[in-house]
Specification:
heterodimer; A: 117 residues; mainly beta; seven-stranded mixed β-sheet; four-stranded antiparallel β-sheet; B: 111 residues; six-stranded mixed β-sheet; three-stranded antiparallel β-sheet
Chain lengths: 117, 111
């Protein structure tokens, strides 16, 4: 059974770049027709899809975040990563990695990222 | 403001039936895109409850069912149990916005 685990800093200064990694265990990331997603949830609010990368390497981003986001895949390390530039307080929330095609069938537990000076 | 609209909260007594609505538009549910539902227990990651409008993954009790018609969808829960108390989210695709995954704002179910 595939499991996902996020890792990265819990605190980011305003205007800096967030870098998160999701380690996949129990299955490859570079094969199959899966999309590897990043999703976030601000405190007390709903879910927001950030974007995903297909196992082929093609990426798709939420237009509202596209200018600041990069998702990449490292098949040798069985990981995929998220970079968000120019972080502000509005980017504070729980960031989760996930797997799915049209829907999400596997979620990581999520990691809280706080943007504060 | 979420693309898919859900009531902020619903409630029901143990054993009762409740429904949670998810209202979209012509660019998402109305365009024929499927809806999926997730349950998020307090402090936990979301869990897939219903996919492709009305299919349950293995292990999800048949107390949970989904339906979709036009620009709206619903999640029904029968025989409410205390452990059903959670947040519920609907999700679909929006062709007009080119957002591959759009979520509802979530509904808090109190049992």
């Amino acid at each position: 059974q595939v499991q996902l685990q996020e890792s990265g800093p819990g605190l980011v200064r305003p205007s800096q770049t967030l870098s998160l990694t999701c380690t996949v265990s129990g299955g490859p990331v570079g094969s199959g027709d899966y999309y590897w997603s990043w999703i976030r949830q601000p405190p007390g609010k709903g879910l927001e899809w950030i974007g995903y990368i297909h196992s082929s390497g093609n990426t798709y981003y939420n237009p509202s975040l596209k200018s600041r986001v990069t998702i990449s895949l490292d098949t040798s390390k069985v990981q995929f990563s998220l970079k968000v530039i120019s972080m502000t307080a509005a980017d504070t929330g729980v960031y989760s990695c996930a797997r799915g095609i049209k829907w999400i069938d596997t979620w990581g537990h999520g990691t809280l990222v706080t943007v504060s000076s | 403001q979420s693309v898919l609209t859900q009531p902020p909260s619903v409630s029901g007594a143990p054993g009762q039936r409740v429904t949670i609505s998810c209202t979209g538009s012509r660019s998402n549910l109305g365009a024929g895109y499927d809806v999926h539902w997730y349950q998020q227990l307090p402090g936990a990651a979301p869990k897939l409850l219903i996919y492709n409008n009305n299919y349950r993954p293995s292990g999800v009790p048949d107390r949970f069912s989904g339906s979709k018609s036009g620009t709206s969808a619903s999640l029904a829960i029968t025989g409410l149990q205390p452990e059903d108390e959670a947040d519920y989210y609907c999700q679909s695709y929006d062709g007009g916005l080119s957002v591959h995954m759009v979520f509802g704002g979530g509904t808090k179910l109190t049992v």
